[in-house]
Design goal:
FMN; alpha/beta; eight-stranded parallel beta sheet; Alpha-hydroxy acid oxidase; FMN binding; 13 strands; 15 helices; L-lactate dehydrogenase (NAD+) activity; FMN_HAD; binds ligand FNR; about 375 residues; globular
């Protein structure tokens, strides 16, 4: 079998192993997918400054994220339905992240629950919160994350209303889901996926089912979720959530400098420059293109993280050079999970780490903390 050398190799393997509707769920963006595509392609608009004859020995990728030590400035972004790529995907991804020394963020919309992941990991992970209309449910979820020892709350702000994804609608992944014999055929043609699935009993969205009022199974869950994302979410809610949680908070889904200023005023520990991986506002700029204005606005006030379109260590390096202090990946670890479960996520980490390390050396730097605009040749058509 051909070796797995880059993230694109993991993507191709996952495409072949995971039933089409679940692979498409990971691979989709909203409407025309222009923002999804720009997230990736805009990294090509940044060129690096090559340096020679500098000492490239003793390199370090170690850093901190909101004061917590990490083996490199990278975390796993929250991803719903994670366990659909590989049974118990949330637990396996959390274990791979723990072994690699970076944070895993569990989504509200995960199949394994906060408690499932806590029972199967040794170190604290992070929990991502969606604000639902039912504030008792939200308060209870925050308390459960606290009880499980989660080390940060990632509060997602860019999904008050759901962007439309054509692939999901065509595949019948709507609320309620419309499954046909064609889906059974799709699943039937993926025997190794079925085999892994058959080994787990965790098949419902365990953060929600059995906890939200009137949600006892998958079909009541899907209509509940569709109605529950809260279009009235405001900065006052952010204050309330921050207070109820009482620990480190990261605000996710900031793409605009004015919003970044509002976010910094809340006293949150970090923001994630993100457009939800191009799954919400199609036509919005890519995350990397949005980063410089946000750094100018609040770079000295709050830690700035970024996600969206990162597919290599070179992309991570470019984001760090433009001023982000840390990065996240979403789809790349889903492709890892879809390929080989925990081993696939571990492979993804190795690929990104090696690429970042060697690229940093070729830029003439030895410590990831020293990367900056001085390592860039040009960005978005402007010479640096
Ligand atoms: C997401 N994302 C996401 N974000 C969030 O806050 N809560 C969630 O439940 C989800 N669910 C989700 C599912 C899938 C399939 C994808 C691809 C993404 C967004 C995610 O956290 C992150 O912002 C993007 O994935 C980053 O872009 P890349 O790395 O996937 O390009």
């Amino acid at each position: 079998m051909a070796p797995i050398l880059e993230i694109a190799d993991l993507k191709e393997r996952a495409r072949r192993r995971v039933p089409k509707m679940f692979f498409d769920y990971a691979d989709s963006g909203s409407w025309t997918e222009s923002t999804y595509q720009a997230n990736e392609s805009d990294y090509d608009q940044i060129t690096l400054r090559q340096r020679v004859a500098v000492d490239m020995t003793n390199r370090s990728l170690e850093a901190t994220m909101i004061g917590q030590p990490v083996s490199m400035p990278l975390a796993l972004a929250p991803v719903g339905f994670c366990g659909m790529q590989w049974a118990d995907g949330e637990i396996l991804a959390a274990q791979a992240a723990e072994a690699f020394g970076v944070p895993f963020t569990l989504s509200t919309m995960s199949i394994c629950s906060i408690e499932d992941v806590a029972e199967n990991t040794k170190k604290p992970f992070w929990f991502q919160l969606y604000v639902m209309r039912d504030r008792d449910f939200v308060g209870n979820l925050i308390d459960r994350a606290k009880a499980a020892g989660c080390a940060a709350l990632v509060l997602t702000l860019d999904l008050q209303i759901l962007g439309q994804r054509h692939k999901d609608l065509r595949n019948g992944l709507s609320a309620p889901p419309k499954f046909t014999p064609h889906h059974l055929w799709q699943i039937g043609t993926c025997p190794s996926w079925c085999l892994a699935m058959a080994k787990t009993k965790r098949r419902t969205f365990r953060n929600i089912v059995g906890h939200a009022k009137g949600v006892g199974d998958l079909s009541s869950l899907s209509s509940w979720t569709a109605e529950q994302f809260d279009p009235t979410l405001s900065w006052a809610d952010v204050e309330w959530i921050k207070e109820r949680w009482g620990g480190p908070v990261i605000l996710k889904g900031i793409l605009d400098a004015e919003d970044a200023q509002m976010a910094a005023k809340t006293g949150a520990d970090a923001i994630i420059v993100s457009n939800h991986g191009g799954r919400q506002l199609d036509g919005a700029p890519s995350s990397i293109r949005s980063l410089p204005a946000i750094i100018d606005a609040v770079g000295d006030k709050i830690e700035i993280h970024i996600d969206g379109g990162i597919r290599s260590g070179q992309d991570i390096l470019k984001a760090l050079c433009l001023g982000a202090t840390s990065t996240y990946v979403g789809r790349p670890y889903l492709y890892g999970l879809g390929t080989a479960g925990k081993a696939g996520v571990a492979r993804m980490f190795e690929i990104l780490k090696t690429e970042l390390d060697i690229t940093m050396a070729l830029c003439g730097e030895r410590d990831v903390k020293n990367l900056g605009r001085q390592n860039l040749h040009a960005a978005f058509g402007e010479k640096i």
